[in-house]
Amino acid sequence: MTSILPTIPRLVFTVLEPISLSVAPTIQMKARVAGAVAPFISPEWFVSEQIALSPLESITPNTRMVALQLGNIYLLLAMVGIAVLYTTTECRVVRNYVIALWAADIGHVAITCYVMEYERMIDVANWNAMTWGNIGATVVLFSVRTAYLLGVFGPDRLPAMGKVKKGQ
Is NADP there in the keyword field (predicted)? Predict the structure, then answer.
């Protein structure tokens, strides 16, 4: 695990976020699935859950393709996050990765809010798990990223270096 990140961002970015991208909990059809798993189990359900209180309907092959590709992208994001944060010892790489995710969080929430009807967006009591993930969880991740980038959790740590023998 990368030793560059302070404890809280390290836990959030290297453990919780990759898990949420791959198999975060959602309750529906007696299954607890979301992230990358849900579109592969039921693309129809995954698409209908994007906006709370939407009916479950059959989808076109084009929509099925988009849902499955989105699931694949969630897996990719989880793997990239693990690869970058577990292997690099470069503070700049970690910070630039977090900045890219920070910007993507803004777009993710903005697009979700833009597409939802205003009444559904402000009806927080009736949000489903997918809406909580798309807005609530993303805002939490955005907040942790912002705090990290502002130095709230302390400075980046220098990687532990192996002892170098004299003369090498």
Answer: no
